[in-house]
Each structure stands twice: as structure tokens, then as C-alpha cells.
Amino acid sequence: MKILVIPSFWPESDMPLKGTFFREQVLALNERGVRADVVYLETRSLRTLSMRKVWRNYFQVTSNHEAGIFIMRQKGWNTNIASAAGGQLYVHLSSRLVKRYIEKQGCPDLIHAHNFLRAGCVADHVKRKFGIPYVVTEHSSDFLSGSVPQHSLPHIREAYQNADKVVAVSEGLALKVKELLGEKTVAVIPNMVDTDFFSLRPNTPQPDKFVFLAIASLDTNKGLDILIRAFAKGFSGCAETYLNIAGEGPQSGYLRELAKTLGVHNQVRFLGHLSREEVRSALWSANVLVLASLHETFGVVLIEALSTGLPVIATRSGGPESIVTPEVGMLVGAGDAEELCSAMQRMRQEVFSNFVTRNYALNLFSRTVVTKLLIDTYREVFGKTV
């Protein structure tokens, strides 16, 4: 079986962590004997434009094996894909890249696109031209927040209706996709976690120190201001109780000032951008992971934390409801600082088994489990089209 993957995001030279969960999935498929190749159109922001970067990225097409994955990419710049014209250009350039892949590597058995906007529209265009069936997995929180661009809806609906299989990463997202695009079977296949990398912590936590950890982009959707307010209400002045926040984003300055205003700046520590290895170390050093998002289609960081044996607190924001159960953590209302504070105080007293938590992640989100679900989906589609 030969699969061509069209991701919405993929690691780039200046953003090595971009779309890493797509790459993990493709790696896992190749390890299971499925040839999964990638075509990817880079659309790096014009705000990063420099003469040196132009010399490196001038819309050239490269074909390489990267970490065991064959990838054909066009190294370009922002095509203003948020606009109607930019979206059409993105579909045109990506479809041309797929055509070039087929000329060089042969026709795949099917295409797996990630997100209807825009990869699903590319897959639909390619199917019309080459007759290749396609699966689309939806990840975007735009469906939860109601911010799918209106000008894109006709194209998305068409790609949705023509897809041979539609998948969402959580039950909540599946419902929203059907609500917006029309009644159709939408399967649920979660994201996966590398349980070998995100392993149980090698040491025991310090008994006289308690650390809440948040790993997120510092933007309004992640609810970090609500988290800081909840922490301040429940733990201001509590000795050896800390909130570590990892990530970067536009709210960085505001969040730091908020911690000062609330008098917890000595307890709230901003860790900045972390590498994958540093994320694991931060999880190993924490007692609880907190995800305070207003909208969240899945929450990969939740299953990374669970894989290390760490219990979690998450909001009912779309995706976490499909992940968090009472045996591994707590769910609270999105945007509710009072309920979040209460959950954090209870979590400070309760004891969760790190072995139970990790086994839960292994049984539901490991590479072996999720890859089997994907391969079964491919076989179902391929069987219908041969």
C-alpha cells in the first residue's frame, strides 16, 4: 500500500517543531510497512523575509528522504491563503506538486490529507484529475470556534462530500464538522504519542514542592490568563507551589504583567520555547499538566503528559472530553477560573497512579494502536475502490 500524505503543516528549517504530530504519524506508518510519502507546499510568513532566506527559499522543488520519509516540497512563501484568491493559488500550486510527484514516483493508492482547508481541497482537485481516492483527517479548531472562512465553505463542503472517508481527531470535533458540512459518517481516530520517548519520569518528584505545568502557545485561545487567575486565587503565597508556563506568543508580555499584578510573579515561571527534549524534561519535573484552552480539537500535550504518568486538568473545550477520564485527571468548564481553581486545589491533595495513567495512554494513543486504526481505514477505502 502506497499513501501520499498532504499535511497542513510540516517541519521547516526555521520552524523544526511545526507539524511534528503529522510527521510522527507518517513515520509510524512507514515503520509498519506502509509506504507513506509526503508532498508539502511551504508558506512561510513574509514577515520573516530576508535576502538570505530568499536565496534558500525561491519556490524551488526539492525531493529528499528526511528521517526515513520521502518528501517532495516546494520551498516558498506566504500565498495569502486566508483569502479566496490565495486559497485557490495554494490549491493550484499543491496540485501541481502532486502531479510532479506522480510523474517521478508513480501513482499512490490513496491520498491522506490533513484538514479540509486547504489540503482536503487539494486532494479533491487531484481526485478529479487522476481518480485517486482520498481520506481527510480534520484537526482545525476553526470548526469549534465557528471561524471557518465563509468564502471557503463551498470548496470545503465539496471536498467533504467527495471524500472517500472523513476522520476527526475527537468526538467533539466530529460533531462540529457534521454540523457545519452536512450529515455524513465521520470516524474518530485520535492523534498518537511516542510512548517510547515520552516515558515515565526517571526520578520521583520532590515531596516538598508542587508544580503545575502548562505547555501552549501564549495566545488568547489557550486561556492562560484564566489559568494564572485561578492559580493566584488558590495558591498565592503558598510555599513551594509553582506554575510553569512553556511557550511563546503574542500574550507573553500581558501574561507576565498579569502575574505581577496578582502578586504571583515569584511563583509563575515562564520557560519560553522548549525543544521536544525540554518538553519531556518539563513534564518529568511537574506534578500536574493543565490545559486551559477555550477551544481545543484534541490536545496532543495531554497524551504526552499521560504517557509520562502525569495526571492532567483540562477544559471541556472540544477535544479533551475524548481524552480525560476520572482515572487520569479532571475536566472543568472552559473559561471558568473558579472551577479551574477548585480542580487545581483538589489535584494538589489527590494521588494518581503514574502507572495507571501511563497504561491508559498506551492502550488508547500509542503509535501501535493509532497506526492500526489508520491502516484499517486505508484498507477499507482501498477495498471499495479496486
Write a structural description.
The strands form two sheets. An eight-stranded mixed beta sheet has the order 3-4-2-1-5-6-7-8, with helices on both faces. A six-stranded parallel beta sheet has the order 11-10-9-12-13-14, sandwiched between helices. The longest helix has 22 residues. The protein is of the alpha/beta class and 386 residues long. The chain has two domains: 211 residues, Rossmann fold, CATH 3.40.50.2000; 156 residues, Glycogen Phosphorylase B (Rossmann fold). 42% of the residues lie in helices and 19% in strands. The chain is built from 14 helices and 14 strands. The model has no long low-confidence stretch (mean pLDDT 93).
Low-confidence stretches: none
Using the 3D structure, state the CATH architecture of the largest domain: 3-Layer(aba) Sandwich
CATH level 3 topology of the largest domain: Rossmann fold
Fourth-level CATH superfamily of the largest domain: Glycogen Phosphorylase B
In the CATH scheme, the class of the largest domain would be Alpha Beta
Structural features:
386 residues, alpha/beta, Rossmann fold, 14 helices, 14 strands, 42% helix, globular
Short description:
42% of the residues lie in helices and 19% in strands. With 386 residues, it is α/β, with parallel strands linked by helices.
Topology:
Elements: E1 2-6, H1 20-31, E2 35-41, H2 51-56, E3 60-66, E4 69-75, H3 84-105, E5 110-114, H4 116-130, E6 134-138, H5 142-145, H6 153-162, E7 165-168, H7 171-181, E8 187-188, E9 210-215, H8 224-235, E10 241-246, H9 252-261, E11 268-272, H10 276-284, E12 288-291, H11 300-307, E13 312-316, E14 329-333, H12 337-349, H13 354-365, H14 367-385
Parallel strand pairs: 1-2, 1-5, 2-4, 5-6, 6-7, 7-8, 9-10, 9-12, 10-11, 12-13, 13-14
Antiparallel strand pairs: 3-4
